[in-house]
Structures are given as structure tokens and as C-alpha cells.
Amino acid sequence: MPVLIITFGSFIRKYGTQCSGCSKGIIPLETVRRVRNLVFHLHCFTCFLCNRELATGDHFFLMEDEKLICHTDYYSAATTAIVDNGKFL
């Protein structure tokens, strides 16, 4: 029977947990951030609009497409969306 030898990195990419931000493998002892069923590298846990890294205690929104948006950008975008030519819709 042939023996298959794979590297640790290949094993993690194929069978391990993948980051929801970058889709790369997460090493088992690596510190991560979790939101619902999503797992992120610390450096991938960022606002989709401004790319600011979100920290513990920061308020953010998880959009339907699984993108993270910081509190500031969410309300800024929401305000822009409800105003049309200076009039509230």
C-alpha cells in the first residue's frame, strides 16, 4: 500500500478550519475571533468598508453576506442611504 506524505500546511488547508476573511487555513493553536459560526484570523477581523481591525469590545454589524462593518461605518452608510437630495425618504 502506498504511503502518502503531506506537509502540515497542506493538511491544515485541506482538513482544518478556514478563515472566513481570507479563506486560508487556521493553525490549531492560533488565536482567532469568532462570530456565530464564522472564524477569523485576528488580522482578518476587519471592517469591510474602512479595513480597521476590530478589537474585543468594539461594536460591529455582521451583514447577510457575512461581511463585518464597524459601528461608525454602518451608521454613516445607513444615514447616506436614507437621504436623497437633502430629503429624508
From TrEMBL:
InterPro entries: LIM_Homeobox_TF, Znf_LIM. PROSITE patterns: LIM_DOMAIN_1 (PS00478), LIM_DOMAIN_2 (PS50023). It is found in: Nucleus. It holds the Pfam family LIM. It comes from the Eukaryota. This is LIM/homeobox protein Lhx4. Residues 17-80 form the LIM zinc-binding domain. Keywords: DNA-binding, Homeobox, LIM domain, Metal-binding, Nucleus, Zinc. GO terms for molecular function: DNA-binding transcription factor activity, RNA polymerase II-specific; metal ion binding; RNA polymerase II transcription regulatory region sequence-specific DNA binding. SUPFAM superfamilies: Glucocorticoid receptor-like (DNA-binding domain). GO terms for biological process: neuron differentiation.
